[in-house]
Design goal:
Blueprint lengths: L2 H18 L7 H28 L23 H8 L4 H15 L8 E2 L5 E2 L7 E3 L4 E3 L2 H9 L3 H13 L2 H4 L3 E4 L12 E4 L1 H9 L13 E4 L12 H24 L9 E6 L6 H12 L3 E4 L1 H4 L6 H16 L2 E4 L15 H19 L3 E6 L7 H4 L4 E4 L5 H10 L6 E2 L5 H7 L4 H17 L4 E2 L1 H13 L6
Parallel strand pairs: 8-11, 8-12, 9-10, 10-11, 13-14
Antiparallel strand pairs: 1-2, 3-4, 5-6, 7-9
C-alpha cells in the first residue's frame, strides 16, 4: 500500500476521532429544569430528616414508619426524570438515589445530623453515617437510609434492610455501591452509600461519561486512531482478528436467530499471545473501534488480592459492569492471573485453585468479548486455553513487515534523510513495532536538538543500541 496514502488516511481518521470528541451544545434550559427537579427531591429528603428528628423526641413516634411518598417530577424529560422513568424506580429506590446523590450535589442536606460546635462529628448515632473530616461532611450509609424510614421499629428495619440488599436494581447494576470506610465495622449496613461518579455527572448535568480509573473500577479505556490495515501483522493473524470483529458485529443476530435453544454460547473469550511489542494491545483497541464498543484494559495489580475471596469479588464487579454496558475487557499479561493451577499443598494453593475455577466459570458466562493477552501462552492453565473461542498469535515481524513498520512508525512532521537504507535496517535489526517506535522517539528528540526534522542514520544506530541494551543485547 502506498505510504503517502497511509498517512493521508490516518490523518483523516484522527480528524474524525477528534470531531467525535467535540462537546455537544449545552442545553442550559434543560439543565435548569433538571436542577429544579433535583431541588424538589432534596427538599423531600430534608423534610424526611426533619420529621424523623422531631419524632425522636417522642417515645411513641420513635418506632413509627415515615410516609416516603416522593414528589411529582415536574419535568420528566430531564436527565433525572428520564432516569427515574427508565428504571421505574419505586419510592424506596427514589429515596436511595437522592440520599446517595446528595453528598456530591448538596451535602448540606445532612447538616442537621452533624455536631459542628464541639468538633466535626455525628450528632445522632441512630442515623449511622460516616464523617468525612477531609471535606467536612456527612456520608450516608445504609443505616442512615433504613433508620430514616423505619426509626426504631425492628420489624420495619428488617424489612427494608432486606429489601434494599436483595431487591435493588441500583445496587445490582452498580449504579450505587457500598464502600467500607469505617475500620470499626465490616457490617454492610455501616458502609457508605456511594453513587458512581459517571451517574453523578449524568443525573446533575446530563453529561454522559465513562467510569474513571479507581479502586471501584481498576481499568482504563483503550482508544486508537488506527484501523485494521495499520496493524502490521501477517495475513493469518489478520484473518483471526477479522473473525473476532465479525462475531462482535453479528453476535446479536446469531443469538436472536437461535432463539431459546442456546446452542451457541453468548461469550467469546479469545487469547492474544506472542512476544511483547507485537501489537496485541493495539489490536484490542482496533477491535473495539471497528465494532463500536468501548475497550477497557484491566489493571491486574488492583484486582488480584492476597485476601481470600477478594480477587473473585473484584473480578465479578468488573464482569458485571462490562456485561451491562456491552464493553470489551482486555487482560494484559494475563498469565499473572490465569496461571497454571498447581498441586494443592496448603490452604493458599486450595484457594488459588478455587479462584481459578471461579474465573473460568465467569468468563464462560460473560456475554461480551473477553481478550486475554500474554507473552507466553504455555504459562496459562490448560483448562483455560480449552475455553478460548480463538487463539491469535502475534509473531515477531518478518523483514518485509519490519520495513513497513519503519515507515508507519515515523511520526508526522518528520522525514528520513535522503538515501537512508530502511531496507537494510529492517534486514539487520530484528525489532518489533514497539521497539521501532521507541527508537524513532529518541531520533525525533535528537533532530529537534539540531533544529531540523530529519531522522539521520547515526541517530537511528545510537537509538538501536539504547533499545538493545534493555534486553542486554548488542550489535
Amino acid at each position: 500500500m502506498n505510504f503517502e496514502k497511509d498517512i493521508s488516511r490516518i490523518k483523516e481518521e484522527k480528524v474524525y476521532e477528534a470531531n467525535k470528541l467535540v462537546k455537544k451544545e449545552i442545553n442550559y434550559d434543560l439543565i435548569g429544569q433538571n436542577a429544579e427537579v433535583l431541588g424538589h427531591e432534596l427538599n423531600w429528603l430534608k423534610g424526611l430528616i426533619r420529621q424523623r428528628l422531631e419524632w425522636m423526641k417522642d417515645e411513641e413516634s420513635r418506632s413509627e414508619g415515615l410516609d416516603i411518598t416522593p414528589p411529582v417530577i415536574i419535568h420528566p424529560n430531564t436527565p433525572y426524570g428520564q432516569f427515574v422513568h427508565k428504571y421505574q424506580l419505586k419510592r424506596e429506590e427514589r429515596l436511595l438515589l437522592i440520599i446517595a446523590l446528595a453528598p456530591a450535589y448538596q451535602p448540606e442536606v445532612f447538616s442537621p445530623l452533624l455536631e459542628k460546635e464541639r468538633g466535626f462529628r455525628i450528632k445522632y448515632d441512630e442515623f449511622g453515617g460516616i464523617t468525612d473530616n477531609l471535606n467536612f461532611q456527612f456520608l450516608p450509609t445504609l443505616k442512615t437510609l433504613v433508620y430514616l424510614i423505619a426509626g426504631e421499629n425492628a420489624e420495619l428495619t428488617g424489612k427494608y434492610f432486606t429489601r434494599y440488599i436483595e431487591e435493588n436494581r441500583l445496587l445490582d447494576e452498580q449504579i450505587i455501591v457500598f464502600r467500607n470506610l469505617s475500620q470499626d465495622s465490616d457490617r454492610i449496613i455501616n458502609h457508605e452509600l456511594r453513587l458512581i461518579p459517571e451517574y453523578v455527572a449524568h443525573l446533575t448535568r446530563g453529561k454522559e461519561t465513562l467510569p474513571a480509573f479507581s479502586s471501584d473500577f481498576p481499568a482504563k479505556q483503550l482508544i486508537t486512531p488506527y484501523a485494521l490495515d495499520d496493524l502490521v501483522v501477517g495475513s493469518f493473524t489478520k484473518e483471526r482478528l477479522q473473525l473476532i470483529i465479525d462475531w462482535v458485529n453479528f453476535r446479536d443476530k446469531v443469538l436472536e436467530r437461535q432463539g431459546a435453544s442456546k446452542k451457541v454460547k453468548e461469550g467469546f473469550p479469545v487469547l492474544f499471545y506472542g512476544p511483547p511489542g507485537t501489537g496485541k494491545t493495539m489490536a484490542a483497541s482496533i477491535i473495539g473501534k471497528l465494532s463500536g464498543k468501548e475497550v477497557f484494559q484491566i489493571d491486574l495489580s488492583m484486582v488480584v488480592s492476597k485476601y481470600i475471596g477478594e480477587t473473585e469479588k473484584n473480578l465479578a464487579r468488573l464482569f458485571d459492569k462490562a456485561e451491562r454496558k456491552d464493553w470489551i475487557l482486555f487482560f494484559d499479561e494475563a498469565d499473572s492471573l490465569f496461571g497454571k493451577r498447581g498441586q494443592v499443598k496448603d490452604a493458599h494453593d486450595k484457594y488459588a485453585n478455587q479462584e481459578m475455577s471461579f474465573l473460568l466459570q465467569r468468563m464462560e458466562q460473560f456475554t461480551g468479548l473477553t481478550i486475554l493477552a500474554t507473552n507466553f501462552d504455555q504459562n496459562l492453565d490448560p483448562a483455560l486455553t480449552r475455553r478460548f473461542q480463538a487463539k491469535v498469535y502475534f509473531p515477531r515481524p518478518e523483514k518485509e513487515e519490519r520495513e513497513l513498520l519503519w515507515q508507519k512508525c515515523l511520526p508526522e512532521g518528520y522525514c528520513y534523510e535522503a538515501d537512508l537504507p530502511i531496507s537494510k535496517l529492517a534486514e539487520k535489526f530484528v525489532l518489533t513495532g514497539a521497539n521501532i517506535s521507541n527508537i524513532l522517539k529518541i531520533c525525533c528528540v535528537r533532530s529537534e536538538k539540531r533544529g531540523e526534522n530529519k531522522i539521520i542514520i547515526n541517530d537511528i544506530l545510537d537509538a538501536v543500541r539504547i533499545e538493545y541494551s534493555k534486553e542486554n543485547k548488542t550489535f
